[in-house]
Amino acid sequence: MNQAVQAYSYAGPSLLADGRLGLSTSGGTALSGPQSHPRFFSGLLTQAAPAAAGLLAVADVALTRYHQPRPGWTRDPVVTCDGDRLRFESFSACGGVYARLDVLALDGDVLDRGTTNVDVNGPLREALARVGGRDPLHLGVGPDELAVTTLDGAVVEKKVPLPSRWLRGFAEVQVIAAAFDLRAELRGPQAVRFLRSLPKRANATVWAIPAGRDLRVATAPAPGGVCLSGVGRIATLMPLLRFAKALRVYGPAGGAGHQASGPAGGAGHQASAWELELPGMRYTLAISPQPWRGFSGEGAVLADLATDEAAEDADVVGMLLNFEPAVEIGLLADRSGLPPSRVRAALTQLGTSGRVGYDLHEAAHFHRELPYDRDQVAELNPRLTAARALADSGAVRLSGDTAEVTTDGGVRLVRLAEGSCTCPWWFDHAGRGPCKHVLAAQIAARARAEVEA
Q1: CB under 8 Å to 202, separation ≥6 — which residues?
Q2: Domains of the chain by start residue, with CATH
Q3: pLDDT in tens, 214-227
Q4: Rounded to whole angstroms, how far apart are CA atoms 98 and 57?
Q5: Which of 144, 160, 346, 370 has the fewest CB atoms in 10 Å of its CB?
Q6: What is the pLDDT of residues 393-407, one digit of tens each?
Q7: How far apart are CA 123 and CA 136, in angstroms?
Q8: DSSP element (H, E) containing 34
């Protein structure tokens, strides 16, 4: 498994004391440039208890391996300040659960905009769990706002292995979420009732089926339903229910067939997203189609990345990003001179290095900067690398809407219109993006079209 090691270096541990929450930061990019310990915000969170519980929920997801649980490393959450809100994000250790807390009710000074990691240590977790009431909480994101200043320059350093699937998951989930529709919205009491009605077995698979203004739990797919495979993977919603104002449920557009797994996976299993509206903030979970399927292998980014112009377009579009609360594709198209379809592909390319996320509630992308080496990005999609090698070697023979791709394992027949293939990988993993043979055929077909034009 490809993986890098991320070194966190904090000026001191994050602390919560006397109504002051100081989040220590490590590295990152800001409008003012690269920073070792950036300062982004100093002010009040108007709702202390839900903010503390939401931050703890994001940290819990980073701590948890939902598929085949076992002790492991904890990855510190990422926070982005865009001047309008704070977005705290994390991924589960197994790569199948993405969590984000959008803190909207800010009252204070935005000192800079950008992205960094924040230290969430054991003592801080215990302190967050004890926060009660709805009194304001002073928050400082940056080392100068540490609640206790008698640490005599104590430095906290952590070295955490980061598998490639972690970064690939950030890229995949924003593409998958962008294709979701809102399927249901429940007000507070209904949301609490529905979530508490779910089976207690953590590995249970259910479908949330719209029923008027409510949702009912079913054990089989139905039109308009949203799949939840592994009920235990939304466990971090439960401590937040006492603050819940609404629950919104999102699923793939196009019905039950979208993103269904292949013969090995069980028909109808789909990714989904669950958004809890809290006072002054939103907590969102995105759940992969099945517990054993991390987002990193879904392949949703590959079609966009296979285009010849995606990398160059990403350089152009990337220079226009400015940590905006919402990235407007039309505005980027106007500023870059690119058509919207190429802007979307460029955003996907930027997502492979963690520079773009997607907010379902806003139906818009947002800008962030994860601390990853861009030189490693090309290694994160081996299917695409193999496809380009096949196309460059002349292994693809096009014939109308079909193609024959010659490999060491034999000749594979690709149907371009359907995006299907006769290879064993496609039979086992249909629904997890195109195989290398389909990608190779698409690359060759585009090259032929350019020559003929």
Answers
A1: 66, 230, 231, 232, 233, 235
A2: 3-163 (3.10.150), 170-297 (3.10.150), 381-453 (no CATH)
A3: 899 999 888 889 99
A4: 11
A5: 144
A6: 999 999 989 999 999
A7: 21
A8: strand 33-34
